[in-house]
């Protein structure tokens, strides 16, 4: 029997809040249509946001063109460059919103535009089902689901207001000032042997 080879080192990258700036795009769109006397809602994670603002946000995010035209998010691209330098196989892993079926098309077009059509993209309702040595994702719920199946995996979490209080021994929150920590952890993940348990924060 032939010896089993090591599993290919895959780095999974989320889109919204990781590679593209969903929150900035939504904030700017909401600002452009508010009335002169309405307050601004910069913190989109605030549960006290009125329902009518949430409905506006849903309308804004309905067309594929909105998703396709989002700006890059620099924190995610910093981590992407590290992954490329370590020769990870880059794959995009993004959630497909039930409310916005056209977003699936827009996300694919965004990837084609900024990363190239050769990049593999998985649009899913459950990120926990997808294998990778590293996940780069800003949303705690998706991170916890992925880690529930991967007790040796590494997560790099681009910092935002919604994940500021999140912590986990396999998660490094990247805020732009700790790129060397991210590089060291990703290198450990890249060369981790099958079955090996690593302390990424050591």
Keywords:
14% strand, 202 residues, single chain, Rossmann fold, disordered N terminus, globular, alpha/beta
Q: What is the C-level CATH assignment of the largest domain?
A: Alpha Beta
Strand arrangement in the largest pleated sheet:
3-2-1-4-5-6
Question: Quaternary arrangement of the chains shown?
Answer: single chain
Strand content: 5-15%
Counting structural domains, the number is 2
**Average predicted confidence as pLDDT:** 91
Topology pattern, helix = H, strand = E: EHHHHEHEEHEEH
CATH topology of the largest domain: Rossmann fold
Give the structure's gist in a few sentences:
Helices cover 36% and strands 14% of the residues. It has 202 residues and is of the alpha/beta class.
Give the helices and strands, then pairings.
Layout: E1 10-13, H1 22-33, H2 51-60, H3 64-68, H4 74-85, E2 89-95, H5 101-114, E3 120-124, E4 134-136, H6 140-147, E5 154-158, E6 171-174, H7 179-190
Describe this structure in words.
With 202 residues, the protein is α/β, with parallel strands linked by helices. It folds into 2 domains: 133 residues, Rossmann fold, CATH 3.40.50; 43 residues, no CATH class. Helices cover 36% and strands 14% of the residues. Helix 6 links the parallel strand 4 and strand 5. Helix 4 packs across helix 7. The longest helix is centred in the middle third of the chain and has 14 residues.
